[in-house]
Amino acid sequence: MNKYQILTLNHISSHGLRRFPPSLYAVGKAAEQPDAILVRSYNMNEMTIPTSVRAIGRAGAGTNNIPVAAMSRRGVPVFNAPGANANAVKELVVAALLIAARNVVPAISYVTSLDAAAPDLHKQVEDGKKRFAGIELPHRMLGIVGLGAIGGLVADTALKLGMRVIGFDPLITVDAAWRLPSNVRKAASIEELLHQSDFVTLHVPLVPDTRNLIDDKRVGLMKQGAVLLNFARDALVDEHAIVEALRAQRLKYYISDFPGAALLHEPGVVALPHLGASTAEAEENCAVMVIDEVRGFLEHGAIANSVNFPNVEMPRGSPYRVAIANANVPNMLGQISMTVGNAGLNIQNMVNKSRGDMAYTLVDVDSAVDDQVIRSIAAIDGVLSVRAIPVPESEG
Q1: pTM, 2 dp
Q2: How far is residue 105's CA from residue 99's CA, in Å, rounded to a whole number?
Q3: Which of 119, 194, 203, 341 is buried most, with the most CB atoms less than 10 Å from its CB?
């Protein structure tokens, strides 16, 4: 069995890369016919992705730098690492809350502008003390838009700091709802949340429905002097609307991990160079999670934490397995089963799951699957990709 070829487009934590057994994998930046690609922030939307690629792993949560729709049409799962960097982002959000509440950034800027030789230096320092007096967080209302892994951790920490918390997430999962502290108030709409919150923090993915989620109309609903935090995605907000609100003093601060051109040098903007997941621990966690997902798929056809495929797992009952990605249309299972049966193969076990327009099937059979069987399945109208998956030699 040839080694699986893994192409890395960014630096990936060595702790994670060590999870690739050298006997089964060749990993590096020079793979010309990779079986899988590992990526962090590299923009894959503008690259030609080799036809050999069977999987893409994003060592992070967001996948807007990956052409997911195009990969779906090719039957290629895109994996991510939801929650692996949640603690890192949560800590930066908490830091941002404190920075805003205590006017830390303008206070630092004021002190750095002072003349160390000025005879009235002490008086200037005392003047700054009065000028940059802040507020405390207890009893202030924090609005959290998006209550997934990060939003849930932020909510829990804010409550422990004495804040009141209101959340909005119409797509919250059952697991996330169970993890959420019971004293988080549930807003019926984002408008209700914005109207009630002293601080608002965004933790939703960038999809068509969330682009410019915070526009001039919604900024107008926020409390006078409210603070908006964005450590999710830059395009969730209309930057020009934010600048207008800051200049009109409707917003006190906009603290963001994305320093867009319209925001630079604007008073009231605190912009960081995308530090949210930039900790050694988060990078390791993301790499470990996504590499385990890619290995599970390549070696056994398992799907976990894919943004475009259903979760599918089936214990191996045979050394001979076939994995099929297909359009979610009627009679696909019947055609697949017939094709396998016509080849004289006995099906030992089969699982099929669907997610929207995508379906995925694993089939274990009792004898070897030759190339002609694979070609016959591939010829079925609606099949996007198909491959035979031998048991890895280290397990055989």
Answers
A1: 0.82
A2: 7
A3: 203
User: Torsion angle of alpha carbons 389, 393, 394, 396, nearest 10°?
Assistant: 80
| Chain-centre distance for alpha carbon 325 | 23
Q: How far apart are the first and last CA of the chain?
A: 11
Residue with tokens 């967001």, as numbered in its chain = 62
pLDDT (tens digit per residue) in 103-119: 999 999 999 999 999 99
CATH of the domain at 143: 3.40.50.720
Helix, strand, coil percentages in the chain from 3-state DSSP, rounded to 5 = 35, 20, 45
Please tell me whether residues 56 and 148 are part of one structural domain. no
Spatial CA neighbour of 199 closest among 230, 242, 173:
230
What is the tens place of the pLDDT at every residue in 39-53? 998 999 999 999 999
- Tokens (6 digits) for 77: 């799962």
Please, which pLDDT band fits residue 396 given cuts at 50, 70 and 90?
Answer: very low
Per DSSP, 248 falls in state T
Please write the tens of the pLDDT for every residue from 1-43: 689 999 999 999 999 999 999 999 999 999 989 999 999 989 9
Beta pairing, strands 141-145 & 199-202: parallel
**Contact residues for 210 (Cβ-Cβ < 8 A; gap 6+):** 204, 233, 236
Structural domain count of the chain: 3
Tell me the residue range of the domain where 174 lies.
Answer: 86-101+135-271
Report the distance separating Cα 72 and Cα 375, nearest Å.
20
What are the φ/ψ torsions at residue 231 (nearest 5 degrees)?
Answer: -120, 30
Cβ distance 280 to 88 under 8 Å?
no
